Amino acid sequence: MDRGEQMSDLFAFNGAKGAGWAQPKPSIEREILISSIPKKLRRKSLPKWPRASEPEIVRHYTWLSNRNFGIDNGFYPLGSCTMKHNPRVNEKIVQLPGMDKIHPLQPEHHVQGLLAIYFEMQEMLATCSGMDQVTLQPVAGAQGEFTAIRCIQEYHRQQGQGHRSKVIVPDSAHGTNPASASMCGYDIIEIPSGDDGRLDLEALKSAVGDDTAAMMITNPSTLGVFEHQIAEAAEIVHSAGGQMYYDGANFNAIIGKTDPGRMGFDAVHYNLHKTFSQPHGGGGPGSGPIGVKSHLSQFLPTPLAGRRNQVEADPKGVDDGYWYFWQDVGENSIGKVQQWNGNAGAVVRSWAFYRRYGKELEKMSEHAVLNSNYLRHRIMNPDPEIAKKIHVMPLNGAPADLVMHEFTLSLTPLKELHGVTGKDVAKRLLDYGVMAPTLYFPTIVPECLMIEPTETESKEVLDKFASDLHKILSEDPDLVTSAPHTTDVKRVDEVWAARNLILKHPGNESGQ
Amino acid sequence: MDQMPNLGREKEMLDVLGLNTMDDLFANIPLEIRRNTPLPLPEPQSEEEIWADASRLLGANITLEDRPSFLSAGLVRNFVPTAVAMLATRGEFLTSYTPYQPEVSQGMLQAMWEFQTMVSELVGLPVANVSMYDASTAAAEAITCAVRVHNRKAIQKGVVFVSEYTPPHRLAVIKNYTQGAEIEIKTLKHLENGEVDMTSIKDAEGCCAVYVEQPNCLGMLDDTLLDIKELIGEETALIVGVDAVSLGIIDPPGSWGADIVVGEGQAFGIGPTAGGPIYGLFACGDKYIRQMPGRIVGLTKDTDENKAFTLTLSTREQHIRRHRATSNICSNETLIALMGAIHMSLLGPEGLERLALRVAANTELTKKAISSIKGIELVDPGKYNFREFAVKLPHLASEALTYLDKLGVIAGLDLGIWWKSMDHCLLIGVDDRTSESDIESLYLGLSEWIEVNK
Predict the structure, then answer these.
(1) Does B34 contact A285 at a Cβ distance shorter than 8 Å?
(2) Of B360, B356, B373, nearest to B442 (Cα)?
(3) Is the pLDDT of residue A4 over 80?
């Protein structure tokens, strides 16, 4: 069957002849305007964009949305990505004109409300992480990492330690950690994890030295286990003159229970699109604020949101007794990493999200960890009747009694005995109406599935996922290796895509 | 708190685990680093209370809708079609992750492939990615990409010439992104009349890349830029930053030799939104594909030989290549790029031209009105401007802004905040929605300010 015929092709519509959406006329006639452009500068032919009417466009994108899977469609146990529910009021809030129709360069007395939200978010994130100062400017986790490492780099230079050229990362680190440090010009030292999947202090001791600029690590680790020797690790790095950087991708596990400040970190980034529910939007936008201890705050990107007590001469504020302003960080600032003040829309969504929990954010982490341990237990302890049917059980990715917000499974036995890989099981899960877990990461766990249920899933959803996974482990291996069977397309040929590189449509030719 | 389905069922689940309390779940955190006090944060709120607070706080802001506004500087107060947000915020798009599982992500993948097509067509280059964070990071990563491609053969190793008309906030981003790659940023000079200085172009010979903007950050178009690719040659990348809407009427850089085109996408898809989330455009020629940053979608087939889409060339990216990746970018601005794609689709080719003409008309009318005020001079007289133009005032621009603010007019940008030497200059920006009465308010306001300060 050629399903290509059934596809909706944006560039094939030809109903409205390129006038799908009417606009007012320009206030000067077209011919006059065109002739006023120096001839050399004029565009010769229009881009081959779609030529469709509004109804056709609406149907096209609705059709596309029906071929896409989000948290709203079902369980999304994507490890390290914290795919939690996105409260809908947050979307309505960012469409308010006081958000959407604001220019970042408007004077401060125009944006007291926005500044008040910025200030509250800086304070809240500092409180939850044990840091002294937060900036909301970085717009993604990776940019947060980059920003913090830049601050650490300038700190070392100021201290006459500019020769420190190496950044240490564990082999279980997210790929962005080494990529971000490398973009700052650092050499990367990767240290192997211990047998329990945790940080190996002996390996760390032999890696640090006079050339150590920083260590980047996430806690809990990407295996979902808490690095209980983190304070000792911080001591080792600090004694060598290095700085400690906390990758906040897994922050959802620990809020209210501990914080990077107590663990001995100097800098941290937060993923508002993970912990604080900015929707992932198919890949972004994100927001990656960073927090630092006071010795690094003079290097932060500029500006920050600041406030002082309101005085009588001030214009009207937001009636909380404060006057808010953009505070210049000063001459040691690294300058800008995004051209404005960060992804304000993501900051406001996350502010609305955090207000829902307030001082009970701790419960959010408790439920995230409860759901993760519960799901892991259900997967690893099937009922005896079901267990009989399973070909072979997966292995725990980390030999720990308890995990944090996520956990890993290794499907090595299944691969060795039946030729069914982690990828096959992941693809088969799609047939059961759930998103596949994160696959083959961390790389130190062979045939790895990394599972993070988050706090917004019910016990029933977790039970069903465990039972679906058990079913798959009992199925005919051929059925699994040829999965998925019920999705919009069958298994996609990624190699063909890379070999042929068809990266665009020929476009709508009818107007040419 | 109404977000957690298992609230109240903790005991049932803890029993399964053989645990007594929720705190038992955190037994692996050593006591020395445990937090023992509650977080000093406010009480949880209901949706109704959050909405009330958000409406009150954001309602206290003065918006670009509330008054005539001529503040642009790279962001625009556009009219976004209603269908855009309604379609893009459908839950299947809004709440999906990066399409790493193509079998259940064909919708977003196809939408991004179509986005790549429209961006490619717009700028006149064969390949576009799925978005950068903004125009500045797009420019910065275009530079690092170009250096990776050209450094081996370059005579001036690691050297990139950046136009002096690059706004300081963009230059700051460029410097942060390039300092670690041992790239030396040199200034590409312009003449008194705003045109690029051809002796400076000569100095750039044999370097890795030249970065210019068309129009420049003062809204001026320089037709001599169309000749510089011939001068710098094949071994030096020409990177051009654009105003995306202008390309409805202005020759796209791809047709005059640009190797990489970058720019701000915001005008298509979303309001200025206090500076983010917006999205950066990035398009390039074939020889940069393997060194470019960001995600790319390719057309392929499934095991039944049906058409399918997938992310491709991932071996450039951080999750595969780690510290040897072409960029650290992971989360990008996909949803905003989707909004952009829907907006572009609705416009169509003629709609794009009309949008550009509306901006061109309002530029023309505003420029004519304001430059007719006695005491105000155009910074680049006799040049073609799109969207923005700079004027020199008799007194400090900051004082003019304050005066007009009291009259209820956002008069533009004080160029003194970018360059101290231009503190008497005002950057005035228009958009598709600038009305005759807006222009009149600005005209009367500036005239009055000049009159009272005589």
Answers:
(1) no
(2) B373
(3) no
Q: Using CA atoms, how far apart are residues B414 and B422, in angstroms rounded to an integer?
A: 8
Contact (CB<8Å) A281/B355:
no
In this predicted structure, the answer to whether residue B410 has a pLDDT above a threshold of 70 is yes
Name the phi and psi angles at A243, rounded to 5: -110, 155
Residues 136-165 of chain A whose Cβ lies under 8 A from any Cβ of chain B: 139-143, 145-146, 150, 153
d(CA B132, CA A502): 21
B331/A contact by beta carbon, under 8 A: yes
Classify domain A89-358 at the CATH topology level. Aspartate Aminotransferase; domain 2 (3.40.640)
CATH class of this structure's domain B83-343: alpha beta
The answer to whether A462 and A379 have CB atoms below 8 angstroms apart is: no
- DSSP states of B259-272 as a string? SEEEEE-TTTTS--
CA distance A357 to chain B (A): 5
| Residues forming CATH 3.90.1150.10 domain(s) in chain B | 349-452
Cβ of A14 under 8 Å from any chain B Cβ? no
Q: Which CATH class is domain A361-496?
A: alpha beta
Q: Hunting for tokens 């973009």 — which residue is that?
A: A183
| B81/A contact by beta carbon, under 8 A | yes
The whole-angstrom separation of Cα A421 and Cα A249 is: 27
Beta strand A166-170 with A187-191 is parallel
Contact A187, A214 (CB under 8 A): no
3-state secondary structure A441-477: CCCCCCCEEEECCCCCCCHHHHHHHHHHHHHHHHCCH
CA distance B144 to B182: 10
Three-class SS state of A106: coil
Q: What is the dihedral of CA B376, B379, B380, B385, to 10 degrees?
A: -80
Residues in chain B, how many? 454
- The helix/strand count (H/E) of chain B reads as 13, 15
* Per-residue pLDDT, A489: 97
In the beta sheet, which residues pair with residue B385?
A: B220
Chain B interface includes A499 (CB < 8 A): no
Q: Give the mean model confidence (pLDDT) for residues A93-120.
A: 97
pLDDT digits (tens, 9 = 90+) for A273-309: 999 999 999 999 999 999 999 999 999 999 999 999 9
Interface of B with A in 158-217 (CB under 8 A): 169-170, 172-173, 175-177, 179-182
- CATH architecture, domain B349-452: Alpha-Beta Complex (3.90)
Alpha carbon of A417: minimum distance to chain B alpha carbons (Å): 25
**CA atoms of A70 and A68, how far apart (whole Å):** 7
Amino acid B81: pLDDT: 97
Q: What is the DSSP string of B280-331?
A: EEEEE-GGGGGG--S-EEEEEEBTTS-EEEEEE-GGGSHHHHGGGSS----S
pLDDT digits (tens, 9 = 90+) for A60-90: 999 999 999 999 999 999 999 999 999 999 9
Residues of A in contact with B30 (CB under 8 A): 228, 231
Among B271, B305, B328, the residue with its CB nearest the CB of A180 is B328
Token representation of residue B438:
């807006």
Query: Mind listing the pLDDT tens digit for each residue in A251-269?
Result: 999 999 999 999 999 999 9
A321 Ramachandran zone, left/alpha/beta (phi>0; psi -120 to 50): left
The pLDDT tens digits for B438-447 are 999 999 999 9
Q: Do A490 and B306 touch (CB under 8 A)?
A: yes
CB contact under 8 A, B320 and A175: yes
Prior bond of B40 cis (ω within 30°) = no
CB A94 within 8 A of CB B273: yes
CATH code 3.40.640.10 region(s) in chain A: 89-358
CB contact under 8 A, B54 and A283: no
